[in-house]
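Quarterly update from the structural biology core.
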Amino acid sequence: MDIYLIRHTPIQIENDICYGQSDVGLEDQIVQAEMPALPEDTVIISSPLQRCLELANNLSHSPIIDKRIMELNFGDWEMQKWDDINQESLQEWMNDYINIAPPGGESLQALSERCQDFWNDLITKETSQAVVVITHLGVIRALLAQVLEIPLEKSLCIQVDYGAINKLTYHTSDKTNEAWVTIEYLNQSSQNWGLINIT
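Predicted structure, tokenized:
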């Protein structure tokens, strides 16, 4: 099963704003010509946030919506400028962002756990269809950390640009009853979508 993890395209917000699960819109209109050509039976799964859902709706008339692949919830910090957040609380979070949650939000570990739950459901579906997952930076990094079996904090080193495509393939063997994942490519520019064959 081929699995494409796609980060949403640039959003309409200032760079110094903490937005997480806030439902901000995309910076530009999505141009249909930029969309990859997908087989009719491709499964499209999207975060419910509009910055992902707009792309999903351009790819499918009936995308599957899954809240587990929403971005990190920053709680009380949502839509605040980073400089306006209580600096003592911010420093406490930065000292252990894996386990500590922003006030009213969630930790990176909590995000990872819901992403793991999503992944486990995904790979248990026996299908030869391609799966396109339209989601967020934090989710893609968490999923890649699980696949690579690296500590969650190391995933912050993985570059995932706006609109980037990351292709994974989930393999199973009937003979040995084993399963494994290969990474075909990471951070492929969306400018090359027309050159990418999703099958």
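The chain has a mean pLDDT of 88.
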